[in-house]
Amino acid sequence: MTAPDSRRRPVISAALSEADLSALQARFAAAAGAAPVLASAPSPDLAGSPVIDVTDATFQAEVVERSLHVPVIVDLWAAWCGPCSVLSPSLEWLAGEANGAWVLAKLNADENPRIGQMLGLQSIPMVVVVKGGQPVGAFTGVPKEPAIREWLSGLLDASAA
């Protein structure tokens, strides 16, 4: 099994293939009046919690730049979303178990719509893996924990090669 919900994977894959996060990097740099950050730039502080909260404003540094050094799993959720409240604790548990192999970035899709739009968000919960500054896989819904583990292992092992 390569994705927890293979019925939705083609739609999400098509949306992700159009999500070029390097454009986001350049836009943030231009807004700050600085040159774009390249892969050779010093890494952001990677120490700390395996679970971080991100916003439209912090997505560039906390997800895109961090993903140049360690995979970042983005959990797009909303407070009103019942399935999100089921999925998030599982992802947080898995992030803690990963011992820094990847970071979980939680993004409230209602409060931060721009990133959701960029990633082709159509329903929540949605989980996106960002590695090397680009999305490499995603799923929507609430698969069982073993399916999430298998999916993450497949993506993280493939991206490490």
From TrEMBL:
GO terms of molecular function: protein-disulfide reductase activity
Highest taxon listed in the record's lineage: Bacteria
PROSITE patterns referenced in this protein's UniProt entry, alphabetically: THIOREDOXIN_1, THIOREDOXIN_2
Keywords: Disulfide bond, Electron transport, Redox-active center, Transport
Pfam families in UniProt: Thioredoxin
InterPro entries recorded: Thioredoxin-like_sf (IPR036249), Thioredoxin_CS (IPR017937), Thioredoxin_domain (IPR013766)
Stated name of the protein: Thioredoxin domain-containing protein
Species of the source: Nannocystis pusilla
A cellular-component GO term for this protein: cytoplasm
Domain Thioredoxin, residue spans: 29-157
UniProt keyword Disulfide bond present: yes
